[in-house]
Specification:
Radius of gyration: 19 Å
CATH architecture of the largest domain: 2-Layer Sandwich
Shape: elongated
CATH superfamily of the largest domain: ACT domain
CATH class of the largest domain: Alpha Beta
Length: 163
């Protein structure tokens, strides 16, 4: 199975997200990650969609998205020619004994401590999915209380305009 990261410029109008997500569900495709936000123009939003499948399925996903009325442009974000990031927040149970160990792990990954309470800590980390998964893996020996991930977002490298 291959993975594709698509950056879509779409009209910033009511129902766009529902129509894009509906396209995936109608055809039985799974979305690994979906993020949406306004661009520098109020009338346009950027969607970053991550999906997995064989080459034929991924090609069909791209073709079907291109047919959507709300889609202005699509760019495939290859790993070697784009910057792709995700944000994760992790709440970990912490005691006085484990707090320094957790901070050491945080320092290794350049994560930020964003909250400390008597019995827990919250860490924030930005990076590619492999980095975030490695961070979670190192924290697995501790009591992970909650995890929140934003989903993948990205841009193509260089000055080429997507519009």
């Amino acid at each position: 199975m291959s993975k594709i990261v698509l950056s879509l410029l779409v009209k910033n109008s009511t129902g766009v997200l529902s129509r894009i997500a509906g396209l995936f569900s109608r055809r039985g495709y799974n979305i690994d990650s979906l993020t949406v936000g306004e661009t520098e123009l109020d009338s346009i939003s950027r969607m970053t969609v991550v999906a997995r499948g064989d080459d034929a399925v991924l090609e069909q996903i791209e073709k079907q998205l291109r047919k959507q009325y709300d889609v202005i442009n699509i760019r495939v974000l290859p790993a070697d020619a784009s910057v792709v990031r995700e944000l994760i927040m992790v709440k970990v149970g912490a005691t006085m004994e484990t707090r320094s160990q957790l901070i050491s792990i945080c320092d290794i990954f350049r994560a930020k401590v964003v909250d400390v309470s008597e019995d827990s800590m919250i860490f924030e980390l930005t990076g590619n999915q492999e980095k975030l998964n490695a961070f979670l893996n190192l924290l697995s020996g501790y009591k992970i209380l909650e995890v929140a991930r934003t989903g993948v977002t990205g841009l193509a490298r260089g000055t080429a305009d997507q519009k």
